[in-house]
Amino acid sequence: MTKNFIDYGKCQIIKYGEELCGDSIDFLQKDNKKVISLCDGLGSGVKGSIASTLTSKIGSKMFLYDQSIEEVVKTIINALPSCKIRGISYSTFTFIKIIDDYYFEIINFDNPNIIIKTKFDYKKEEIYIEDYKIDYYRGFLEENDYICAFSDGVIHAGAKNLMNFSWSLEKIHSFIEKHIKLSCNSICKKVISTSNHIYQSKPFDDASFIMLKKKKEQVLNILTGPPLEKTKDEEFVNEFLNKSGYKIICGGTSSKIVARVLNEDIKILNLNSKLPPTYELKGINLVTEGAITLQKVDDFLDKYIKGIYDLQDLYMGRSKDEADYKILEYMIEKSSKINIFLGRKTNKAHENIIKNIKLRENIIENISLKLKKIGKKIEIRYF
Question: 78 and 113: one domain?
Answer without folding.
Answer: yes
